[in-house]
Write a structure and sequence with these properties.
Number of strands: 7
Distance between the termini: 14 Å
CATH topology: Rossmann fold
Helix content: 40-55%
Number of helices: 7
Order of helices and strands: EEHHHEHEHEHEHE
Structural class: alpha/beta
CATH architecture: 3-Layer(aba) Sandwich
Number of domains: 1
Oligomer: single chain
Strand order of the largest sheet: 5-6-7
Largest sheet: 3 strands, parallel
Strand content: 15-25%
Length: 159
């Protein structure tokens, strides 16, 4: 299947065809320093995601290893349980400002799909989560959002 490169990311053409590079770049450049956009994104990150996520000092591990103080940034405490919601929120907010009505993601283990479905629900947008058959059968996706649809693929390595 042909692939489309946007920045350093690749997407299947049938998935990425809803947004062209020529359409995305000017819109991103318009909002990336816009105080109103950034304030709305910051508010959503704080109130919806729970950022900033806390930093935890690992006293026992630091003592066991010796010579270093080890800290963990607790991204697992973010809404949806991973860091994936951070970029999904920004992408969804930009898509909404662009007048798009649907968010689309490719995922393997499913965390990206769960995060995007969560944000799509928040933004009242439709959502498609594309996964290979192997990944679908190996990973349980807790996506209880009626606006999210999981699309199974059987191309390439099936994952």
């Amino acid at each position: 299947m042909p692939r489309l490169v946007i920045g350093d990311k690749q997407s299947c053409l049938n998935i990425a065809s809803g947004l062209t590079h020529q359409e995305f770049v000017p819109q991103y450049n318009r909002v990336k320093n816009d105080p109103e956009f950034l304030a709305e994104l910051a508010e959503l990150r704080k109130r919806f995601v729970g950022r900033p996520s806390p930093i935890y000092k690992c006293k026992n591990l630091s003592a066991k290893i010796g010579g270093a103080t080890i800290y963990l940034k607790r991204e697992d405490l973010n809404h949806t349980g991973s860091h994936k919601i951070n970029h999904c929120l920004g992408e969804a907010l930009l898509a909404k400002k662009m007048g798009k009505g649907k968010l689309i993601a490719e995922t393997g283990a499913g965390q990206h799909g769960v995060a995007l479905a969560t944000v799509a629900s928040l933004m009242q947008m439709d959502c498609e989560i594309h996964m290979g058959e192997v990944d679908v059968s190996a990973n349980y996706l807790p996506i209880p959002f009626p606006s999210a649809k999981i699309v199974h693929h059987t191309f390439h390595s099936d994952s």
